[in-house]
Design goal:
Layout (H helix, E strand, L loop, with lengths): L2 E7 L6 H10 L6 E6 L12 H9 L5 E4 L9 H13 L3 E4 L5 E2 L6 H38 L14 H13 L4 H8 L3 H9 L1 H10 L3
Parallel strand pairs: 1-2, 1-3, 3-4
Antiparallel strand pairs: 4-5
Helix pairs in contact: 3-4, 4-5, 4-8, 5-6, 6-7, 7-8
């Protein structure tokens, strides 16, 4: 039985090694690391990515797939749900680094299956919703920047990176952590996380204005 860690790295402030190190620090014993770089989780299905295809070829009954969160598998609701269900049908266990969620096909109890499937659907929907919100905020930020005088004062540089912004929103959407816990997880001050959560569009605009 093999444990494979899969990472999707789409921005310059994310690294494969960092994600893998976090997984190991959280207690996962990783046998192999697969990662796709520069790939959109919205427009590109897991099975269409180079290393994503390898997952479908490699994973067998009894294997474990570890991801930081389900959005690493994709940010399209249908694709993520179908992917997780396909792996469960194969007898693969899917585990997440954030919140230590475990999904498998071991249970045959209909109520437990219903709860499991509802949770999978909720997490997949959250991933897509967050991606769409970020995309809309990016468009608004870009439009605002273009409409503004390029020599105008841009304000204070954001104290957070795009990776921290994205992860803070994802954790907030899950509702399992309070603001202080999220701040510790992503490496920010609590007030910075509070501002991101209360006004993500403004935070996105700050990033866009500074070209981050």
């Amino acid at each position: 039985m093999t444990t494979i860690f899969y990472a999707r790295v789409s921005t310059t402030d994310q690294t494969i090694d960092h994600q893998a190190q976090q997984a190991r620090a959280e207690g996962f014993e990783i046998d192999e690391v697969l990662a796709d770089e520069g790939v959109s989780g919205v427009s590109t299905k897991l099975a269409e990515r180079t290393q994503g295809r390898r997952l479908f070829d490699m994973l067998r009954k009894g294997d474990t797939l570890v991801v930081r969160w389900v959005d690493r598998l994709g940010r399209n609701y249908i694709d993520v749900v179908d992917t997780i269900r396909e792996f469960m049908r194969r007898g693969v266990v899917i585990r997440t680094g954030i919140n230590k969620m475990t999904f498998d096909g071991a249970t045959t109890d209909p109520m437990q299956m219903a709860v499991r499937d509802a949770l999978i659907g909720f997490m997949a929907a959250t991933a897509q919703a967050q991606a769409e919100a970020t995309k809309d905020a990016q468009k608004a930020g870009i439009a605002h920047t273009k409409a503004s005088d390029q020599t105008a004062y841009r304000g204070r540089k954001p104290s957070f990176t795009r990776k921290q912004f994205t992860e803070a929103l994802a954790l907030a959407n899950q509702g399992a952590m309070n603001t202080s816990q999220i701040a510790k997880e992503v490496g920010l001050q609590r007030m910075a996380v509070t501002r991101i959560i209360l006004n993500p569009a403004n935070a996105e605009q700050q990033l866009a204005t500074w070209g981050l």
